[in-house]
Design goal:
Spore Coat Polysaccharide Biosynthesis Protein SpsA, Chain A; 8-stranded mixed sheet; alpha/beta; about 160 residues
Length: about 160
């Protein structure tokens, strides 16, 4: 596995890191930047300015594409979601509690982000729905992943248009 960009909005979201090269990207309004940069998480660390969940996701995704990342994990995506965000065909993985659940996607899916207009609602809290709407309209693979209290028992459902 090549580069994985892991987007977080709080240093407390950093969990176990996947194998390969990891880049942690903190997306926030500057509240946690010093704490984040002063902590050694065992990965490359960057900060992007963001206000709202959608703004944070777009900041992380744009940075991931700039770095040539193979996959993007955002908002506490667990290994189960990360395992689906691989391969050459575009795939979007959403936690089943959108808005607000984990988001994961591979590089092939991230390339589609420039093709879709980003309305104001997507920059706020509705990025999950915006991603799913666009992906389904284009016939791209969307996986919904849920966890019980621990992410060791995964349930999965594939969405189609």
């Amino acid at each position: 596995m090549g580069i994985t960009v892991i987007g977080i909005t709080h240093p407390g979201q950093v969990g176990e890191l996947p194998g390969g090269t990891n880049v942690l990207v903190l997306a926030d309004d500057g509240t946690y930047a010093d704490e984040f940069l002063d902590t050694d998480f065992g990965a490359h660390q960057l900060v992007v300015r963001a206000h709202g969940r959608g703004s944070a996701f777009f900041g992380v995704a744009d940075k991931a594409r700039e770095l040539g990342a193979d996959r993007i994990l955002f908002g506490g995506a667990h290994d189960i979601a990360a395992s689906f965000a691989t391969g050459e065909d575009p795939v979007l993985v959403l936690g089943v509690r959108p808005p607000g659940g984990p988001i994961a996607c591979n590089a092939a899916f991230a390339q589609w982000l420039d093709r879709w207009p980003r309305p104001a609602r997507a920059y706020r809290q509705d990025v999950d729905h915006w991603l799913a709407e666009n992906a389904l309209r284009e016939g791209l693979r969307v996986e919904l992943v849920s966890w019980r209290m621990e992410p060791t028992v995964a349930m999965r459902r594939k969405l189609t248009a």
